[in-house]
Amino acid sequence: MNKGRLEAFSDGVIAIIITIMVLEMKVAHGGSLQDLRSVLPVFLSYVLSFVYVGIYWNNHHHMLHTVTAVTGGILWANLYLLFWLSLFPFTTGWMGENHFTAVPTALYAFVLLIAAIAYVILQQTIIRAQGPDSILKKAIGSDWKVKLSPVLYIAAIVVAFRSAWIAQALLVIAALVWLIPDRRIENYVRATHSTSH
Amino acid sequence: MNKGRLEAFSDGVIAIIITIMVLEMKVAHGGSLQDLRSVLPVFLSYVLSFVYVGIYWNNHHHMLHTVTAVTGGILWANLYLLFWLSLFPFTTGWMGENHFTAVPTALYAFVLLIAAIAYVILQQTIIRAQGPDSILKKAIGSDWKVKLSPVLYIAAIVVAFRSAWIAQALLVIAALVWLIPDRRIENYVRATHSTSH
Amino acid sequence: MNKGRLEAFSDGVIAIIITIMVLEMKVAHGGSLQDLRSVLPVFLSYVLSFVYVGIYWNNHHHMLHTVTAVTGGILWANLYLLFWLSLFPFTTGWMGENHFTAVPTALYAFVLLIAAIAYVILQQTIIRAQGPDSILKKAIGSDWKVKLSPVLYIAAIVVAFRSAWIAQALLVIAALVWLIPDRRIENYVRATHSTSH
Amino acid sequence: MNKGRLEAFSDGVIAIIITIMVLEMKVAHGGSLQDLRSVLPVFLSYVLSFVYVGIYWNNHHHMLHTVTAVTGGILWANLYLLFWLSLFPFTTGWMGENHFTAVPTALYAFVLLIAAIAYVILQQTIIRAQGPDSILKKAIGSDWKVKLSPVLYIAAIVVAFRSAWIAQALLVIAALVWLIPDRRIENYVRATHSTSH
Fold it and tell me: Does position C13 have pLDDT exceeding 90, yes or no?
């Protein structure tokens, strides 16, 4: 099977997700600063989601870099991840339009949680497919970020019903943690290349 | 002609279809769980269609893998398939918003039926173009899935006017049948490669 | 400059145009056959536009096949063509929603006309860039389709105000004429290859 | 890291941005010339934004041509630029629907300004990554266009509150300045190639 087409399809879906989210920012009918202010919550939720989708694209990019053969399992694990990412425009719009209240914030964090689990499932599927000498397994080592994120998402879900703003803060922190790209894979690949030359 | 561009264009269209379907999940104005529940039917129809489009992308991927030269016939048969797939967002949204009632369910199954026929037309066009030694023809053998699906879709159309829920069950079963990717083509290609080395 | 990226970008834009047109088929609130019938005019205009965009993608594909170096002129002539194609979703939706009445039909034909002219401009820009031995110039010969189409579009614009249905017939005929892909380019390329071997 | 995937993703996002802007041209319910006239302001703002996005795609294309290795910094600087470009459909729709009044025009120019700064940030990030012998640095020389554009955008923001039409004129001039593609990079690359042969 062809990795290039899997990457191209994933890139296409992620590019569309990241771009159609902006359609949730409905154009206000009036042209004053007040009208613009009414779009502000949706804009803020858009910024957060743009960062999250950017992080997923970045990490997805790194992870697939280690893949040599695409199995049916990898293909469906990848589609499962894309499915949950495709819900971001909806949860983003709902959270923004309802000004970051409890239920929409909890749903937003819930979809982030399932997407994070889907990412781990894809990671494990690739590692299984690569066998005992999996380059991805060696590269990720003890992936503290992958372990921390779901804790923060679950905390955000629980906290949302008490204070939606603390929940938002948790989601922002979880994004900032991921903003640092997964350099371990790059480093490992580079180290391996140096050794083999 | 260039197969890469045909694949890239098909991937683009399929990626857009699978992603814009989520736009049918209109953001509810309220932020309560009840408001969320009102989106549930559209969400469920979205899940079903996401799986179907994923199946089509997967099988399309395998089928085009055997193509070496793109003829005008293949190009138009491919566009004909994409046309029917492009109606999925509409039928999905209509079925979801009307809570899986008879007519929308029958239309949903009808578009699935015509898309399945379009898939067979594309398959036959490729086989004809490949000539007597068609690798695709040998690979697909007796394609029981391709024969079973239309029967299930027709059954769903007929049953929808009696019980929309049995019709839904038939559509879910028809999707589950296809979830197993078309490994025969892979196997055949692999077997041929092994022999020739 | 890189032809691959020009093709990929054009494919992306054309794939989006052909797919978002379906969003103009607004999901009816009711779930009866009557509700479905109200979408029929937009569906019919969607079919016509899908065929036209498919034709443009197909011919664009053949034309760019002869390009070796992308100049700034080709790049902007290509964007100019994409601009007019990007108006298809609007004119398609407007014509469908107004049941093929005079002004929307005339506008639809007008945008087709300008897109056809933009296609010729792109063709001429490529021929100029290729110089005296232009492979595209030799391949297209006396392009009667390119000359016939604008006449049919202009006739459709004029006739629309008398009989919108005759105008539609002209637009359908103009599409059918183009459905036969531009085999001359293929033939010429093939002939040249045969000679040089 | 893989430059091809960065280009493909950027092309995808830019292709979607340039195409979904047309969705802001809401189909009028009536089918008369007056109904069409009501869409004219959104159409004009769409033309301006199409040209701007085309310019960005073109220049982005040239700039990335000089990149050999994609660093994490380049990846995020690129996403930052895409974020601001992704706001174009919103600002375009808002400006068009409010008939080019002061606040929407100022916001439109403001997003252009930040996008221009994001472009410079990406340029500088690439130059830093390329080190002292940066081919991009040598190619851009004294980039008067990059310096002039922000001045015109700032002027448009200030002037918008006095005369929205002069502000529009400034934005049109700033686009016309950029319409001439960045041939210096091409020339430099070509010159270097000639020398090395």
Answer: yes
Q: What is the pTM of this model?
A: 0.89
Contact by Cβ (8 Å): C181, B72: yes
Which chains have 3+ CB pairs within 8 A of D?
A, C
**pLDDT of residue C189 exceeding 70:** no
Question: What's the confidence (pLDDT) of residue B136?
Answer: 76
- Which DSSP category does A142 fall into? S
- Which among D12, D23, D101 has CB closest to A12? D12
- Which of D16, D79, D98 minimises the CB distance to A19? D16
Task: Spell out which residues of chain B touch residue C8, defining contact as CB-CB under 8 Å.
Answer: 8
Coil vs helix vs strand at B191:
helix
Cβ separation of C76 and D54 shorter than 8 Å? yes
Structure tokens belonging to residue B149: 């699906």
Nearest CA of chain B to the CA of C22: how many Å? 7
Distance from CA of C128 to the nearest CA of B (A): 23
Q: Do B1 and C65 touch (CB under 8 A)?
A: yes
**Optimal mutation site among C19, C92, C180, interface B, most CBs of chain B within 10 A:** C19
Instruction: Encode pLDDT of A128-167 as tens digits.
Output: 988 877 777 777 766 777 788 999 999 999 999 999 899 9
Q: How many angstroms separate the first and last alpha carbons of chain C?
A: 29
Q: Per residue in A171-181, pLDDT tens?
A: 999 998 877 65
As a residue count, chain B comes to 197
Q: Looking at residue A180, what DSSP letter applies?
A: S
Question: What letter does residue B172 receive in the DSSP assignment?
Answer: H
Residue pair A163/A106 in contact by the 8 Å Cβ criterion: no
ipTM above threshold 0.85? yes
Report d(CA D163, CA D88) in Å as an integer.
22
